[in-house]
Sequence to fold (221 residues):
Amino acid sequence: MRIVATSDTHFPFTDKLIPDGDVFVHTGDLMYTGYVDEWYPRIESLAALPHKVKLLVPGNHDYHIQNYEGVAAAELRKAGVTMLWPKHPVFELKKVKFLGLPFVTGLEGWAFSRSEEWVRDYLAGLNEDPNIVLSHAPPYLMRDAIYPHKDRARDREHVGCMAYNYWYNKMIKEGIRPKHWISGHIHESYGSTDYGGTWMHNAAMCDRKYQQTNPAIVIDL
Fold:
């Protein structure tokens, strides 16, 4: 199974940065302002992709999805896209279980923003053993660094979700290890890192200046 993952596209996009594969994954921030005038051009971008299976987890810019979740999910289905959200967080394909987590923390007023305590309680209520986690925000300390100043070696801040990190470590202690965790949100941390058997991927297409420069990340299972 070939998974092609991207995130934080923010604007209409083409397949130039997105190769073909079996499963297309978008981990949020499909939109920029989040207003309805952006919605249908984004759906057109998704519908034009050739992948047989397409999965979307919303992000903090995706206000339209948060405000009209049911309608958005239905319109995405018509475009061949399955949205993973609290009412439908799991998708399984050929015994590979995908779990979607749209939540961000520390961004009051943004779409899908929750407190760390809320996210920890939500995760505690899940009874899932995902092979692949799809979240908009990365876990704390895992492909979540921002660089406020020019000295990247000296000035680095970690801004990921602490509840995701806690839940990940809890799963490891219980003998559950996702093979891959795909996120975005932090444009500056694009790339992949192996954390002891779980690959953490930040698939943000847009860079810090909101230019669509980063190609999709390809994962072969």
Notes: The chain has five helices and 15 strands.
